Amino acid sequence: MIGSVRCEFHIHDAHSLKEKRAVLQRMLTRLKQKYNVAAGEMDFQDVWQRTMIEVVTVASSQAKAEKELQRAIKFLDSCPEWERLETNFEWL
């Protein structure tokens, strides 16, 4: 089972693309190190206070994939520098 989640975030204190990418790269690196997921920025690359991150995992069942994605979302939500606006799951 392949599980995917797209999360849109608003980065409160980013005043440039450089500041946005610093926050984004730090969180994506930690996310990939801690969890069995692949992740990357999928939209809003040229907008300095918004980002769309997609996180993908592969597991033997939908329940296991969903658990791993929920753990990843919880980790992303722990960052005080941004706020999650929208979340969409997809299963393949």
Automatic annotation (TrEMBL):
Transmembrane segments: none
InterPro entries associated with the record: DUF503 (IPR007546), TT1725-like_sf (IPR036746)
Superkingdom to which the source organism belongs: Bacteria
Family annotation (Pfam families): DUF503 (PF04456)
Protein name per the record: DUF503 domain-containing protein
Annotated organism of origin: Weizmannia acidilactici
Organism placement in taxonomy: Bacteria, Bacillati, Bacillota, Bacilli, Bacillales
